[in-house]
Amino acid sequence: MFMIGAEKKQILMKELTTLYRTLM
């Protein structure tokens, strides 16, 4: 379960980074 949580967190960070770069 912890591994899945870490994977979701990594995906979320990647989406946030993409959104940030898009806004900039």
TrEMBL record:
<protein>
    <submittedName>
        <fullName>Uncharacterized protein</fullName>
    </submittedName>
</protein>
